[in-house]
Specification:
By secondary structure, this protein is of the alpha+beta class. 16% of the residues lie in helices and 55% in strands. It contains two helices and eleven strands; from the N terminus they run H-E-E-E-E-H-E-E-E-E-E-E-E. Strands 1-2-4-5-6-7-8-10 form an eight-stranded antiparallel barrel. A hairpin with a 2-residue loop joins strand 3 and strand 4. Helix 1 crosses helix 2. The longest helix has 16 residues. The N and C termini lie far apart (45 Å). The relative contact order is 0.29. The N terminus is likely disordered.
């Protein structure tokens, strides 16, 4: 159960941090000693504005219980692990990006941390990636039936952007 929780946290976190506009987010979680899974949400919300070569957003968010891993029980554990008593979303604020790199402030589990984002443009869409750690957001290590979730989380989003 703890293992599933950590995996789900990572997925939710990544979704919020790499957001660019309404779109999708996929969190890739590696397991030890072997294996992996992904959690995906099609409910990333917010507006990213392109002004020339610059991208900005005041707020992007994803509701935790919109992530799906392909296994209902794992989904439920993930949601419970990531939900702070008063916060049901993962939130990215103060997004600023240019030249393939960006920064923002990610809030998970009631903890706010600055994050770095890399991205590439594909026409009117942007594919963004972020790497982070569950420990940064006070989420404990997860292990279930001898399988543990690695602390590093990789997130990928695909979103449309709006021109200023």
């Amino acid at each position: 159960m703890e293992f599933v929780k950590k995996c789900l946290f990572i997925a939710a976190f990544m979704g919020a941090s790499a957001s660019w506009a309404d779109g999708s987010i996929t969190v890739y979680v590696k397991l030890s000693p072997a294996g992996s899974f992904k959690a995906k949400s099609e409910k990333l919300k917010g507006t990213v504005i392109r002004d020339g070569a610059n991208f900005t957003s005041e707020k992007l968010s994803v509701t935790i219980d919109t992530f799906k891993t392909g296994i209902n029980l794992r989904d439920e554990h993930f949601w419970k692990y990531l939900k702070h008593p008063s916060i049901q979303k993962i939130i990215l604020t103060d997004l600023k990006a240019s030249g393939g790199r960006g920064t923002g402030v990610l809030e998970v589990n009631g903890v706010k941390k600055p994050v770095e984002i890399s991205y590439k443009e594909e026409g009117s869409r942007v594919q963004a990636n972020i790497k982070t750690s569950a420990k940064l957001f006070n989420l404990p290590p997860e292990k279930y039936l001898g399988i543990s979730v690695l602390d590093e989380v990789n997130i990928e989003t695909q979103m449309e952007v709006s021109n200023k």
